[in-house]
């Protein structure tokens, strides 16, 4: 029962500020937590296209204040029409609780 309470106590959200930039996107993930946290942040960028696929990772530990959105990084992504791109951010506490946000560019027609 205590584990369930701890998971409920660790909550927050990941938001993405995404702006089109020519043939690509400028994407800035932001994290907000409900309670003070020394959080592990993992950012994964998955990209698959005509020239193959790639996965990149960034990991860090940040001290986050409650209800204060924190900008993590800014990505400049050149995206072709046939590319599949997913940017995933996972935030976890020192235990087992975590939350995740994900962004992909809109499909081109």
Rg, alpha carbons: 16 Å
CATH fold-level name: Immunoglobulin-like
Total strands: 8
Order of helices and strands: HEEEEEEEE
Terminal CA distance? 49 Å
Taking pLDDT < 50 over at least 5 consecutive residues as the criterion, the unreliable ranges are 1-8
What is the arithmetic mean of pLDDT?
87
In percent, how much strand structure appears in the residues?
A: over 45%
Question: What is the molecular shape?
Answer: elongated
Family: Belongs to the CsgC/AgfC family.
Keywords: Chaperone, Periplasm, Signal
InterPro entries: CsgH_dom (IPR047726), Curli_assembly_CsgC/AgfC (IPR053722), Curli_production_prot_CsgC (IPR014491)
Subcellular location: Periplasm
Q: In a nutshell, what does this entry contain?
A:
By secondary structure, the chain is mostly beta strands. The protein has one helix at 2-9, and strands at 12-21, 24-33, 37-49, 52-64, 70-71, 75-78, 84-92, 98-103.
């Amino acid at each position: 029962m205590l584990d369930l309470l701890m998971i409920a106590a660790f909550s927050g959200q990941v938001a993405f500020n995404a702006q089109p930039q020519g043939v690509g996107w400028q994407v800035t993930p932001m994290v907000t937590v409900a309670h003070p946290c020394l959080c592990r942040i993992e950012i994964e960028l998955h990209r698959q296209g005509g020239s193959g696929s790639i996965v990149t990772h960034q990991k860090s530990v940040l001290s986050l204040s409650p209800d204060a959105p924190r900008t993590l990084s800014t990505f400049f992504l050149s995206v072709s029409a046939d590319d599949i791109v997913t940017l995933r951010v996972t935030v976890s506490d020192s235990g087992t609780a975590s939350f995740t946000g994900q962004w992909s560019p809109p499909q081109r027609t």
